[in-house]
Backbone:
């Protein structure tokens, strides 16, 4: 018996041939190095001394071993369920969707009528008040203009949120309107996620696939951060559900189940448009994915590109040139595009101000408030620097700044890396658990009329318990942002696209792996994230488990 166990262990650690062992080892070393560098950036800002060097060397060895074992175990586990199944039982889809909805209800009852964040409060108040700060959120002392809306936040979620709040005011309670939105969001999310998992289960051709579908269902029902975001009035939640839908539509199309995405080009285009107008980064997901599809052999790749072009015309043409002027909407500030660049400049000012000449300081002053940068700079968020942006800065001034930024970056690349990785490193290394919103922000205006129905102490105790769980030994690993935002996508890519022998040499061409493209586009966005908060990785947190179920389920092909 011992000999059999030892033989089995050797097969797990050293099996699949020499080529697979070498690839897994190299992959593990790269992952370990990447993790250690990002963890150092978060904790020590890429500074190294004897102690830090020794500590990080130990970390590197430990992570390399753990990544290697994880890689071998994943390969062994997924390859270990080859049994075919003839179970063609249709699942009760409505019942299962309502069951998922019911599993989320306790969270709603504890935090009744739901939760939100300050962005949502700003959006709703902006809609009802009609006096918008320029060009950021509601920052004291900032210049304002008399406009209908500020497009700093996507206006479509603003309209939707405000519509439900307005409905509530018609019956005398903005809180009821808030609750109605949360209920509809929960139902839509439950039917979408449960429906996808039912489809995966029914089309799985092996026991492995059905087990993965069941495991994914349990994850979405009982992982606390899923219902906590489902009871949150938040543009990221709305966008993440649409992102899951896009992933599923693309998967069905490339697996050969649908001859058109979403069975209709019009519906596919509508999904992409909604993805674009619910979050400012959505347009990049749509366009870059379409460009990536051009490199496949799909017969309709040009139509997919045309749909993306239509979204671009809407986002960059119709919205700013027609809709914004017609509705008296102030366009979003340029500072969001340059946030990471501003942070790098600010870090250089903070670490090595002598690197700037008087001429450089004049260039910066034309775009940013130099003195406030020095005073308000923060390592872990770009907002204090972005908030100093001059909304009246000319295109020439911004152009001169960009030239200066590039020149200084070539001279001081490490400082630029410190500025960026001290923020994004949280997404790419084990750090803290997935954060949640656990209350309704105190705000003036109409959003201030939304109040807790359940006693606030219930929510406070539940949130405290959640954060205690996220730091518990062992358990905390399933609450890490990096698991969903980076590790699952990377492992899917490595196993399904790169590693030889996993799916068999005659079954390497899997066009449905194109769904990893929009996933990794969102991973890249994390590099320029304005702060370390889980909502910026919410698309990945929501979509990674579904991608895992789709790509590893032996889904029945057309």
Residues:
């Amino acid at each position: 018996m011992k000999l059999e166990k030892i033989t089995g262990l050797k097969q797990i650690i050293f099996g699949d041939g020499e080529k697979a062992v070498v690839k897994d080892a190299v992959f593990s070393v790269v992952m370990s190095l990447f993790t250690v560098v990002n963890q150092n950036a978060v904790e020590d800002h890429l500074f190294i001394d004897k102690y830090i060097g020794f500590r990080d060397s130990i970390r590197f060895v430990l992570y390399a071993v753990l990544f290697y074992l994880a890689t071998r175990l994943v390969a062994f586990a997924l390859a270990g369920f080859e049994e075919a199944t003839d179970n063609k039982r249709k699942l009760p889809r409505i019942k299962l969707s309502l069951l998922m909805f019911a599993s989320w209800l306790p969270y709603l009852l504890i935090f009744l009528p739901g939760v939100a964040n300050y962005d949502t409060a700003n959006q709703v108040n902006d809609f009802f008040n009609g006096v918008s700060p320029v060009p950021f959120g509601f920052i004291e002392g900032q210049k304002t203009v008399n406009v209908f809306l500020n497009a700093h936040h996507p206006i479509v979620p603003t309209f939707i949120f405000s519509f439900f709040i307005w409905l509530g005011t018609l019956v005398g309670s903005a809180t009821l309107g808030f609750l109605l939105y949360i209920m509809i969001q929960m139902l839509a999310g439950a039917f979408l996620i449960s429906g996808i998992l039912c489809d995966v289960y029914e089309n799985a051709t092996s026991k492995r696939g059905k087990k993965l579908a069941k495991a994914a269902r349990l994850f979405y029902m009982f992982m606390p951060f899923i219902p906590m975001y489902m009871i949150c009035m938040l543009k990221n939640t709305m966008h993440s559900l649409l992102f899951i839908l896009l992933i599923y539509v693309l998967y069905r199309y490339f697996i050969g189940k649908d001859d058109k995405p979403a069975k209709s080009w019009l519906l596919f285009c509508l999904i992409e448009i909604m993805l674009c107008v619910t979050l400012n980064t959505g347009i990049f997901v749509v366009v870059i994915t379409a460009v990536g599809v051009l490199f496949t052999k799909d017969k309709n790749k040009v139509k997919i590109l045309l749909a993306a072009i239509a979204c671009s015309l809407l986002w960059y043409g119709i919205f700013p040139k027609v809709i914004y002027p017609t509705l008296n909407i102030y366009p979003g500030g340029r500072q969001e595009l340059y946030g990471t660049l501003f942070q790098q400049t600010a870090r250089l000012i903070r670490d090595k101000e002598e690197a700037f000449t008087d001429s450089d300081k004049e260039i910066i002053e034309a775009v940013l408030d130099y003195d406030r940068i020095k005073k308000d700079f923060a390592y872990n968020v770009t907002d204090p620097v972005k908030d100093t942006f001059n909304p009246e800065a000319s295109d020439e001034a911004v152009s001169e700044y960009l030239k200066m930024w590039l020149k200084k970056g070539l001279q001081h690349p490490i400082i630029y890396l410190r500025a960026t990785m001290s923020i994004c490193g949280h997404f790419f290394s084990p750090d803290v658990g997935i954060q949640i919103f656990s209350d309704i922000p105190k705000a003036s205006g109409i959003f201030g009329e939304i109040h807790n129905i359940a006693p606030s102490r219930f929510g406070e105790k539940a949130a405290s318990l959640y954060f205690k769980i996220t730091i518990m030994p062992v358990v905390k690993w399933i609450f890490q942002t990096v698991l969903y935002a980076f590790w699952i996508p990377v492992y899917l890519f490595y196993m399904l696209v790169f590693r030889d022998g996993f799916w068999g040499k005659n079954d390497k061409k899997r066009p449905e792996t194109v769904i990893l493209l929009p996933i990794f586009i969102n991973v890249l966005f994390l590099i320029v994230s304005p702060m370390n908060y889980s909502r910026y990785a919410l698309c990945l947190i929501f979509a990674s488990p579904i991608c895992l179920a789709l790509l590893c389920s032996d889904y029945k092909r057309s």
About this structure: Strands lie at 115-116, 132-133, 144-145, 149-150, 232-233, 329-330.
